[in-house]
Every structure is written in structure tokens, then in C-alpha cells.
Amino acid sequence: MSWNPVYSFVQRIPRGKVLTYGALAKALRLPGGARTAGRAMAATPSGKGIPWHRVIGDRGKILIRGPHALLQRKLLESEGVAIVEFRVDLKRHLWQPKKTGKSKSAAPRKRGRN
């Protein structure tokens, strides 16, 4: 499986925002869910401009261990993401990707009688 669709999607995450592995998997309908998203991010090639550090665990937790966790924290903080004990405030920093295609909310609503 090529991870290129995953990397293209991750490149859309704006500075100062994050996305969880589960949300990434759901958005791309990855088989295997968050674990598959984690494998893709672990295989991120260096030097390609892919902001791997913007993908985090459920409930905002930095899941990478060792020196890479410190690097991820430093990169996120440099973008203005507030982190407390290796946890990001998802209410402030969670990215909500825009849905592609027609959405139900875009259609005019019919008003019923009250």
C-alpha cells in the first residue's frame, strides 16, 4: 500500500493545528483504523515537508517515545500549540478538515410548520 494519500492529507493540516491518528484514518477510510495511520506516520520520509508532528494520539496525547517525543513537542510548541504533560488541548488545536463534495448542510432547509 502506498502512503502517499496519507502524506498528502497530512500536508493539509495547518500550522498550530493537530489531527488524531483515528481522525486521519476515518477521513481516509484506512483499513485498520488508527493503527494503520500510525504505521504510515512512522514510515514518513524525511525531507519531504510532511508535518508528521501534527498527528497525535487520541485525547491529544503525544504517543511517540524517546527523543522523537521531545522533538514532536518542540515542533508543535514552535507553531503555538500549548502542551501540558505531553497532551495537546484538542478544544483549541484540533483541525476539522473540510468535507469534500456536497454536504447535507449545504442544501436549503425546508421549514416545517411549528
CATH architecture: Orthogonal Bundle
- Could you say which overall geometry the principal axes of the C-alpha atoms support? globular
CATH class: Mainly Alpha
Which residues form runs of ≥5 with pLDDT under 50?
102-110
Q: How would you write the strand order of the largest sheet?
A: 1-2
State the CATH superfamily name: Winged helix-like DNA-binding domain superfamily/Winged helix DNA-binding domain
Oligomer: single chain
Largest sheet: 2 strands, parallel
Radius of gyration (CA) equals 16 Å
Domain module count: 1
In the CATH hierarchy, the third-tier topology is known as Arc Repressor Mutant, subunit A
Order of helices and strands: HEHHEHEEH
Give the tally of β-strands. Answer: 4
Distance between the termini: 53 Å
> Please, how many helices?
5
How much of the sequence lies in strands comes to 5-15%
Instruction: Kindly state the percentage of residues in helix.
Output: 25-40%
Mean pLDDT rating: 89
Secondary-structure-based class equals mainly alpha
